[in-house]
Specification:
Distance between the termini: 25 Å
Radius of gyration: 18 Å
CATH topology: Rossmann fold
Helix content: 40-55%
Number of helices: 11
Number of strands: 4
Strand content: 5-15%
CATH class: Alpha Beta
CATH architecture: 3-Layer(aba) Sandwich
Shape: globular
Length: 253
């Protein structure tokens, strides 16, 4: 699976990514995850030593008993040190960060899925980060399309899914459960929602659809995702699903 999941902060991308990973694992038998560590200042990687530790942390978080695993890789001091960098230094880090995740090594695996990445940069960089604006060096809107060209060369089956939640829902979630060092500012909610929709429409990824994460709970959003994703499932993954079903029925040696 090659999934790019995008959406305004508080639209539920991390929650849906976790639900998709659990679903994909159950139907294919593979370990399926997402790279969800792109928004400044949360440019870390979950610090787990093994898959079991990672599974437990994600399970605890999903049950409301632990911190968001996407925010555990850096200490608070390390986060602050990164934020102290000048915009041109942060820009370079992010550019290399994205390029690294476009390397052939990642696409040699059966599954390489991301949350946000180049689309987050296209939306947030010029607005909040102080780099990559229209016509500037490393213009993130232009980079978004060149990034997708690179992605599609390696994985033409890539699917883009936009998590959609209305402004009033985003606003309520922001007030009820504010993110530490969150990116989105309340005054920009409508603008940012519109920008994600614009990037979705401009995307070179043709296999795409939207998912309601505003009026549905996470289970309902997952059901919608799976229904819309089904036509894009590759033959390789369809075969894995058939084998997994046979194993679950005890019919596979």
């Amino acid at each position: 699976m090659h999934i790019t999941l995008i959406g305004c902060e508080y639209s539920g991308t991390t929650s849906l990514a976790y639900a998709i990973s659990q679903w994909a694992k159950s139907v294919t038998g593979d370990t399926v995850g997402f790279h969800d560590h792109w928004k400044i200042p949360h440019l870390n990687h979950p610090p787990f030593e093994n898959p079991e530790e990672s599974d437990q942390a994600w399970s605890d978080w999903a049950a409301g008993n632990g911190e968001d695993p996407t925010r555990l890789g850096f200490t608070e001091e390390e986060q602050n040190l990164f934020l102290a960098l000048k915009p041109n230094q942060q820009e370079m880090f992010e550019r290399y960060h994205m390029e690294y995740h476009l390397s052939p090594g990642f696409y040699s695996y059966d599954h390489h899925n991301i949350v946000g990445m180049h689309i987050d940069e296209a939306v947030y960089a010029g607005l909040y980060y102080g780099y990559g604006g229209d016509g500037e060096y490393a213009d993130r809107k232009k980079m978004a399309r060149s990034t997708e060209e690179h992605m599609l060369q390696q994985a033409p089956d890539t699917v883009l899914a936009l998590c959609k939640a209305p402004a009033n829902v985003i606003r309520k979630r922001m007030k009820d459960n504010p993110h530490q060092n969150g990116v989105l500012q309340e005054k920009d909610i409508d603008l940012v929602i519109g920008r994600f929709e614009e990037e979705y429409e401009l995307s070179l990824i043709k296999n795409k659809f939207t998912v309601d994460t505003g009026t549905k709970n996470i289970d309902g959003s997952l059901v919608e995702f799976v229904e819309k994703f089904e036509p894009f499932i590759t033959e390789v993954d369809r075969n894995k699903i058939l084998v997994q079903k046979a194993k679950q029925r005890g019919e596979w040696v």
